[in-house]
Amino acid sequence: MTAQRKTSPSVSAAFVASGLATAIVALSVVPPTLRLETGLPHGIEHFVIYLATGLAFALGCELKPGVLATLLVFFSGAVEIAQLFVPGRHARLSDFIVDALAITVGVTAVSLVAPDWRSYVATASCRSDWFFIPLGTTETSSEREKQKRVRGVSVTRISRGGA
């Protein structure tokens, strides 16, 4: 009987963050006729999805909040610039300001409300291998390496204790 391993909250947050970022790009580069609308004012739509993205990245990445916020602001700028190359779409400075503000608020909120998030949750690195989890498992290779090191230490201790 094998124990069932649960996915850590930070790995889940990292996947949600990736999904939100993908949704932002997809919704931003489709022609206006195919763009989904919620019925909310345009600025609120932008604020909500970018706030959620900032929160998810802050919960799912081990980058420092300032670095993460900076990278995400560059991301929001790149998305606005990409719209210049889509017929019928246009980049707006006001959209960029709302997007950058929302992402920064999301990242800052996590760093203020849950500053010890990574001390009690196993983190997944945005720079690392959380994205390359083999099918059928929820472990990253760094988690497997940690387990191997722990097993090696405990085996060494047992063999020394038994000798």
Question: Which structural traits does this protein have?
Answer:
163 residues, mainly alpha, 6 helices, elongated
Short summary:
This protein is mainly α and about 160 residues long. It has helices at about 10-30, 40-60, 65-80, 95-115, 115-120, 140-160. Helix 1 packs antiparallel against helix 2, helix 2 (about 40-60) runs parallel beside helix 4 and helix 3 runs antiparallel to helix 4 (about 95-115).
Structural overview:
The protein is an all-alpha fold. It folds into 2 domains: 9-132, no CATH class; 136-163. Helices cover 64% and strands 0% of the residues. Helix 3 (65-82) packs antiparallel against helix 4 (93-113). It is elongated, with a radius of gyration of 20 Å. It starts with 8 loop residues before the first helix and ends with a helix.
Low-confidence spans = 120-125, 127-136, 154-163
Please compute the radius of gyration using only Cα atoms: 20 Å
Distance between the termini: 31 Å
Strand content: under 5%
Largest sheet: none
* Helix-residue proportion: 55-70%
Q: Please give the number of β-strands.
A: 0
What's the shape? Answer: elongated
State mean pLDDT (0 to 100 scale).
77
Structural class: mainly alpha
Q: Give, in order, the helices and strands.
A: HHHHHH
Q: Please give the domain count.
A: 2
- What is the number of helices? 6
Give the helix/strand layout.
Elements: H1 9-29, H2 42-60, H3 65-82, H4 93-113, H5 117-120, H6 141-162
